[in-house]
Amino acid sequence: METPFPPFEPNGPDDSARGPRLREIPLRLVFPNLITILAICAGLTGIRLAFENRYELAVSMVLVAAFLDGIDGRVARLMKATSKFGAQMDSLADIVNFGVAPALVVYVFALDQARSLGWIAALIYAIAAGLRLARFNVMAERENKASWQSEYFVGVPAPAGAMLVLLPVYLGFLGLATDRTFAYVSSIYTVVIAFLLISRLPVWSGKSEGNRLRRDLVLPMMLGVVLYVALLMSYTWEVMVFTVAAYLISLPFGARKWRRKYGTLTIEEPGVGDDDIGRHI
């Protein structure tokens, strides 16, 4: 039963107990979060399409999700709309689009013929993607960042992992028989990609400010990008297989460059204690 009079407050009304007042939010702060939500929708739709045996659309939706998830942060920085809420949304979207969605799509397409081994491989990849993203978030939040962090990734980044793990699907689209042998080989390949995600392999990022391009190579590079996009639109799965192969071949060269500069095969950070699990892994 409601009381006819408000409760007595000797010190005046306690505004701290109330929720925040509603206020208008600039549209530029909402737009990056909308991109993130669209990315999650695309990733989840890709899972649904895979279970409906519409595999080409499923892979396309996963790749679209990865693209949207890759640009939302850049859009937020460009529009000066970064926020803690957006960062948390982006982290949740990453695990869906780069971990769960690719794992389920490749499982439904190929790994299910390997029965439990195929499911275990899909689980390993999804968990590895989650660990990779957690490590990235921990390193990104450090106040004192190492100089090499602007030039190298620690292990294969999750967006690239999503592209790599779908290789069995690309090959299936090109007519390769997806029998039980193919499923077992694909399971092994999935576990290898999972290992690359959580490894401490130095992977060149190309984000260093010191990387410059000669003036006479700018136009040829732009024409090369246009040619790549045109081929991707016309010969999608052939180009994706080529892209995956080129990326995997480039990994030893990045590690070799790291070794020449720092003298080690993997990225090792000094002063890491066993009690600091975020830094230890």
From TrEMBL:
Pfam families: CDP-OH_P_tran_2, CDP-OH_P_transf. One of its GO terms (molecular function) is CDP-diacylglycerol-serine O-phosphatidyltransferase activity. It is an enzyme of class 2 (transferase). It catalyses: a CDP-1,2-diacyl-sn-glycerol + L-serine = a 1,2-diacyl-sn-glycero-3-phospho-L-serine + CMP + H(+). One of its GO terms (biological process) is phospholipid biosynthetic process. InterPro entries: CDP-alcohol_PTase-I, CDP-diaglyc--ser_O-PTrfase, CDP-OH_P_trans, CDP-OH_P_trans_C, CDP-OH_PTrfase_TM_dom, CDP_ALCOHOL_P_TRANSF_CS. Its EC number is 2.7.8.8. Its main location: membrane. Keywords: Lipid biosynthesis, Lipid metabolism, Membrane, Phospholipid biosynthesis, Phospholipid metabolism, Transferase, Transmembrane, Transmembrane helix. Belongs to the CDP-alcohol phosphatidyltransferase class-I family. PANTHER family: CDP-DIACYLGLYCEROL--GLYCEROL-3-PHOSPHATE 3-PHOSPHATIDYLTRANSFERASE-RELATED, CDP-DIACYLGLYCEROL--SERINE O-PHOSPHATIDYLTRANSFERASE. This is CDP-diacylglycerol--serine O-phosphatidyltransferase.
